[in-house]
Design brief:
This protein has 227 residues and is mainly α. 78% of the residues lie in helices and 0% in strands. This is TetR/AcrR family transcriptional regulator.
């Protein structure tokens, strides 16, 4: 019973801090305000988190739990490059909807330190780039492709948060530039077959999902055989 009460108090402190951060994105928050919201004394907060940074780290993990929960609810298109596009858009949407969480998750940098939740999110992206590589769709290594997507996605999202204004045209342009770079279909890089693969995969509604998947497989096999 006491363990349950202890866990509940910890979660309430995280929730209270998250509410304060969400209410004033980018601004500092008071530990006293967190304690007052939960109805506990400061020693209780320090018992659970050790310091203000410890509480912030817990809130960051909470933010990643929310983000990864949304990711898990997304349906796969069956095409890794399309799923990278969808993941990009979901990443931007999360940041614009939750700027307080996002700036803690990706905007606060400590040399040599990466939050555990960030690693979990990165593994999802690396899984997609690994699948793309298995299909012969990448011009770079899966790790490099994942890094290219992630840093560009973060930069686009932070810019929109800083401006406090969505910019879907910028996000789309950068996203497509990144996809072209990692697939080797940027101007002057890829051959006609690889370019055709990515055009078809980007517009599955034209031919239909099944037909598009078959076309991608056929063109991929042809590209590998003639290269």
């Amino acid at each position: 019973m006491m363990e349950m009460a202890s866990s509940d108090t910890r979660e309430r402190l995280i929730s209270a801090a998250a509410d304060l951060i969400a209410a004033s994105p980018g601004e500092d928050f008071s530990l006293r305000a967190v304690c007052d919201a939960v109805g506990v004394k400061m020693p209780t907060l320090y018992h659970f988190f050790g310091s203000k940074q410890g509480l912030i780290d817990a809130v960051v993990e909470h933010g990643f739990d929310l983000y990864l929960g949304e990711k898990a609810a997304m349906e796969s298109s069956g095409d890794p490059i399309q799923d990278i596009r969808a993941g990009w858009d979901a990443h931007v949407a999360f940041g614009l909807t939750n700027p307080g969480f996002y700036t803690l998750m990706y905007g606060k940098v400590s040399p040599g330190h990466s939050p555990a939740g960030q690693s979990r999110a990165n593994e999802i992206l690396k899984g997609l780039t690994a699948r793309a590589a298995d299909q012969g769709r990448l011009a770079v290594s899966p790790d490099q492709a994942a890094a290219h997507v992630l840093v560009s996605n973060i930069g686009v999202t932070l810019r929109q948060i800083m401006l406090a204004q969505p910019d879907p045209e910028l996000s789309h342009a950068v996203r497509e530039g990144v996809v072209a770079a990692i697939t080797g279909t940027a101007t002057g890089q890829g051959d006609a077959l690889n370019a055709a693969i990515e055009v078809a995969a980007a517009h599955p509604h034209i031919l239909g999902a099944t037909e598009t998947q078959l076309l991608v497989e056929w063109l991929g096999k042809l590209s590998r055989e003639v290269s």
